[in-house]
Structure formats: structure tokens, C-alpha cells
Design a protein that fits this description.
Blueprint: E1 2-5, E2 8-10, E3 42-47, H1 56-69, E4 71-80, H2 82-93, E5 101-105, H3 116-130, E6 135-138, H4 141-144, H5 162-170, E7 175-177, H6 196-201, H7 215-228, E8 234-236, H8 246-255, E9 259-262, H9 267-270, H10 274-283, E10 288-289, H11 300-308, H12 333-347
Parallel strand pairs: 3-4, 4-5, 6-7, 7-8, 8-9, 9-10
Antiparallel strand pairs: 1-2
Helix pairs in contact: 2-3, 3-5
The structure holds zinc ion.
Length: 358
């Protein structure tokens, strides 16, 4: 039944199509400005290159793809450490693309207990000496599922981790951290859940309350961590999963000067509120970093189009994330430059300078 007049419901006279079959063609005719290449070279701060940085031919292929998109540099957030980190760094350093990729170091959060922090800091120092330029991507499993040596859940703000965050401040390393997930993943799958299709396609993405801490508990622990280490520079992945509530992220930026946010995989929220997002990006232009997350060259142009145009009502690249359309937020050039590369350069002293526009 659907309401056809106030207080008057009616059933469709034909069987309604299912949520997966209903794909209306929009009749809206309006100017379209696809953007295959970013206007300014971008740093992808949320890269998951995987094996693409483990061999010279694979690296050359990836950088060719990045060239087409005008992605000037990828920051690998694959949690590499020790031998595998050294292998990646050697591949990069020995290649003609040596300034196109930099690598964050991973922290191993298993077995936290007495003595853990000393070892973790030692490993981090070795990884930085080898060439790592930051830490990350700290996975959502910190908070959601990792347990301590004593069997209890490892909380994001556990004091046993403090020496690691202090070492990151001392070594001037940004800490790239993914906490929780879209808040609908904690909600019942019913006709009001806007991620119904995704949760139905990927049931493992749900966080039933008998097995996982609530969304708000995780974000509270995360914010405690950011506040307790004001000298450590944190970058919240996926805009902290608050792109659907930018005022909340704004309050966090105001309260935590050591916090920045990366925007990978939340384009569906940015592009559905073009005026609010435009104003937010202008106000917090020094705090937001471009990142893509999953590596798929064909998807970057959707980001360029949202940031650089004022196009109306165009498709997003994953219909199970968002059944709605996107709009361009038309960022001014100085803001684009900061979001695309200048903020990442400022935050990460280990990134090569050089080829970036002034
Ligand atoms: Zn990631």
C-alpha cells in the first residue's frame, strides 16, 4: 500500500517490481560534465595496491592507470611491516615510478598485554627507518573484534596502546585509522534501513548487538583516543563514518585540532547534500584528504565529478551503497588543491615534494 492522498492508501494494480529490478531511466535532461582526469594531481591517501607494489611490472601498470586519472601519488594503507614492507619499498625505490607511491606501516594489535608496546614501538621504528611514512590503515577490527592477551575486547582507547600513539607523535607520523562502519550496519534490516540491499547481499557486514559493541561505543572510544593524544596526528578514514552527519564531524574538528578526515567510499553521502557538503569542505578545507579505498581505476572519475562540477542527479558507481543520485559540489580551486594533495603533503613529511602545483 502507498499513500495516494492524505490519509488514503492504495495498492498498486500490478505486482510491484523488486528492489533489484526497479531501474527507472531518468528523463531529466541537464548538462553533464564527466571528469575523466582530476583537475589537479591527487594524492590517494587511502590506497590498497596489494601486490601491485610488489613487482616492477605490476607497479608500472598501476602507475600508468593513475596517470590517466591524474593521481600523482598513492599512499599504500595496506598495513605492511617487516619483510613485506621492505620488499614493497625496494620495488618502489628501484623503479622509474619511485616517487609515485609511499607506504604506511602496520601495527600488529594481536596479543596486547604487558611488554606488547615496547615490541610494537621497536617494530614501528624499524619500519620507519626502512621508509614507512605513517601508520595505517588501522583496521576496524581494532574495537570490533580484536581481543587482548587476557581475552577481553581490545578497546580503541586502551591505555596499553598509549606508547605507540606517543611514538607516532615523536616520529611525526600520521595515524590513519578506520573505526566502525556505516551506522546502518548496526540497525535491523527492515524497510527503513537505507543499506537494506547491501546488508542483504553481504550479510556478514551486519553487527548484531549480541556479538559486537554498539556504533556509539566505538566512536566514543575513538574520540577518547584522539583527545588523549593531542600531539599525535590522526586521520579518520571514511570521514569517521559521519559524512551523513557533517555537523557532527565539524564538532569533532573543532574539538580536536589533531584530527583530519579522509573521504574514501563515502562519496554517496557527500554527493547527496551538495550545498551542505560544499560549505563543509570550504569551512574545513585544511582538514579533509582525498582517498579512494578499494583500487578500481574506473571509479575515481565519480569523485572528480562530484568535487569539480555542479552537475545534477548522476549515478554513483555502486547501486547497493546508494540507490540515490549524486550532485556536484563545485569546490573552488584552492579547496580542491588542498583536498587533492596539499593537506596530505602537510600532514606527511615523508611524502616526496616536487611536482605539485603551487
Ligand atoms: Zn581501507
Amino acid at each position: 500500500m502507498t499513500e495516494v492522498r492524505p490519509g488514503n492508501c492504495q495498492a498498486p494494480t500490478m505486482p510491484p517490481p523488486s528492489i533489484v529490478d526497479y531501474r527507472p531511466h531518468s528523463t531529466l535532461v541537464t548538462a553533464a560534465h564527466p571528469v575523466p582526469r582530476a583537475k589537479y594531481p591527487a594524492i590517494d591517501f587511502h590506497g590498497h595496491p596489494g601486490n601491485r607494489i610488489m613487482s616492477a611490472p605490476a607497479l608500472a601498470t598501476m602507475v600508468k592507470e593513475l596517470d590517466e586519472l591524474n593521481v600523482g601519488m598513492m599512499v599504500s594503507a595496506d598495513n605492511l611491516s617487516g619483510e613485506r614492507l621492505r620488499q614493497a619499498l625496494a620495488t618502489i625505490a628501484g623503479s622509474p615510478q619511485k616517487d609515485r607511491v609511499r607506504v604506511l606501516a602496520g601495527i600488529d594489535f594481536r596479543d596486547v598485554g604487558p611488554g606488547w608496546a615496547d615490541k610494537a614501538v621497536q617494530q614501528l621504528e624499524a619500519d620507519v627507518k626502512a621508509g614507512a611514512v605513517g601508520v595505517g590503515e588501522i583496521s576496524k577490527s581494532l574495537g570490533l573484534s580484536i581481543t587482548k592477551r587476557d581475552g577481553s575486547r581490545l578497546k580503541i582507547d586502551d591505555p596499553d596502546l598509549d606508547p605507540v600513539w606517543e611514538a607516532c607523535a615523536r616520529l611525526n607520523l600520521p595515524v590513519f585509522i578506520h573505526t566502525a562502519d556505516p551506522q546502518e550496519f548496526w540497525q535491523p534490516i527492515d524497510n527503513h534501513n537505507e543499506r537494506w540491499l547491501e546488508l542483504s547481499l553481504f550479510p556478514g557486514r551486519r553487527y548484531p548487538s549480541d556479538r559486537f559493541p554498539p556504533f556509539e561505543e566505538l566512536t566514543t572510544e575513538r574520540d577518547n583516543l584522539f583527545k588523549r593524544h593531542p600531539r599525535t596526528k590522526f586521520v579518520a578514514a571514511h570521514m569517521g563514518w559521519h559524512a551523513n552527519d557533517l555537523a557532527r564531524l565539524g564538532r569533532m574538528f573543532d574539538a580536536m585540532p589533531n584530527l583530519s578526515a579522509e573521504l574514501g567510499a563515502v562519496l554517496y553521502d557527500i554527493g547527496r547534500q551538495p550545498r551542505t557538503a560544499h560549505d563543509f569542505f570550504v569551512k574545513y578545507q585544511d582538514r579533509i584528504l582525498f582517498g579512494k579505498d578499494a583500487y578500481e581505476p574506473s571509479e575515481y572519475p565519480y569523485y572528480w565529478r562530484v568535487f569539480e562540477t555542479k552537475d545534477d542527479y548522476f549515478d554513483y558507481y555502486r547501486n547497493y551503497h546508494a540507490f540515490w543520485k549524486l550532485y556536484g559540489i563545485d569546490l573552488p580551486d584552492p579547496v580542491l588543491k588542498k583536498v587533492y594533495y596539499a593537506n596530505a603533503l602537510k600532514l606527511t613529511p615523508g611524502l616526496p615534494r616536487g611536482a605539485w602545483p603551487q
